[in-house]
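Field log, afternoon session.

UNIT: design team B
ACTIVITY: writing a sequence onto a fixed backbone
BACKBONE:
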């Protein structure tokens, strides 16, 4: 069985989905079950709404292949004008997917609430980062006698990534007790928080290991890759009580609901640093890849007839994609 990840994976700093799938691809290559050419692969792992036209063409030409859908979002909860995109994702899923992989229970529940129909086997598998980069090696030890170092990261500059909270912290933090760094793309300018532009993975991992506590204030984030990267580097975390954050953190930090709780929760992590750090319990990339392989292999071995995309449904899907693109263009 050979697997192809049907996504144009970027090599530099990019969004969380890209970074995870890049790490997953590397692991599948090591395990000798990855196929770069989708025409030669037995199984196609496609991601959310990416490359839909190419995906439809591949499915129509190769009905014998097994198609596994890694569903993100819902996108609508992040970009409020995109409900039609989620509906397009669901329609594609219904006609093409032979299996579904969700990234969190929260994401599964929200997608079903918005109209996703599950008519194939499904599972929930969290993400993991590249273990060669994001690990505890050379992590700077916590020292309660110096300033506690807080860090937040985000590739996207969408305000839903928590920038209202980071703006609040820029004035609310006691900078004689704490220091804070933001790494990534920001739509706001900070006065006291140090801003570093987005970094490639190796440099980002080094930066994370120089800090003590990670904070994420993103909203409706199904499985925050930045949060997972920080935890794998040994940083206890504070996160907004939304999306998949509570599932990821567990007892390795704190969850907050209001800005007024943040400072108190930061002190709690600082005062209980070792116990919070010891509670970091996330699967490795090797374990996550094994879960992907086992789920895909079960479907591949047991499925008798992968979904067939007939001409009528092919035209219907292409029409929906064209409509979405036209509406998106007109709304710019």
């Amino acid at each position: 069985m050979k697997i192809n990840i049907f996504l144009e994976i970027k090599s530099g700093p990019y969004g969380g989905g890209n970074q995870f799938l890049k790490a997953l691809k590397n692991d599948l290559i090591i395990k000798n079950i990855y196929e770069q050419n989708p025409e030669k692969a037995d199984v196609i792992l496609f991601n959310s709404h990416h490359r839909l036209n190419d995906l439809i063409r591949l499915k129509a030409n190769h009905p014998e292949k097994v198609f596994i859908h890694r569903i993100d979002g819902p996108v609508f909860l992040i970009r409020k004008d995109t409900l039609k995109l989620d509906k397009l994702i669901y329609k594609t899923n219904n006609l093409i997917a032979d299996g579904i992989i969700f990234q969190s229970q929260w994401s599964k529940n929200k997608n079903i609430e918005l109209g996703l129909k599950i008519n194939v086997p499904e599972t929930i598998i969290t993400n993991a980062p590249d273990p060669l980069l994001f690990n505890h090696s050379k992590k700077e030890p916590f020292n309660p006698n110096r300033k506690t170092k807080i860090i937040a990261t985000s590739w996207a500059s969408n305000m839903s990534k928590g920038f209202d909270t980071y703006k609040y912290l820029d004035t609310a933090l006691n900078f004689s007790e704490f220091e804070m760094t933001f790494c990534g793309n920001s739509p706001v300018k900070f006065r006291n928080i140090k801003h570093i532009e987005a970094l490639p993975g190796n440099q980002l991992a080094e930066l994370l290991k120089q800090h003590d506590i990670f904070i994420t204030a993103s909203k409706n984030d199904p499985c925050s890759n930045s949060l997972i990267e920080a935890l794998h580097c040994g940083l206890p975390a504070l996160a907004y009580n939304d999306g998949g954050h509570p599932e990821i953190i567990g007892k390795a930090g704190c969850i907050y609901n209001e800005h007024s709780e943040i400072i108190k929760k930061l002190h709690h992590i600082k005062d209980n640093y070792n116990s919070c750090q010891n509670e970091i319990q996330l699967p490795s990339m090797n374990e996550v890849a094994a879960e992907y392989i086992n789920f895909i292999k079960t479907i591949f071995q047991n499925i008798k007839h992968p979904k067939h995309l007939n001409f009528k449904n092919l035209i219907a899907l292409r029409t929906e994609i064209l409509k979405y693109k036209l509406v998106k263009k007109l709304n710019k």
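LOG NOTE: The chain has a mean pLDDT of 93.
NEXT ACTIVITY: expression trials, pending approval
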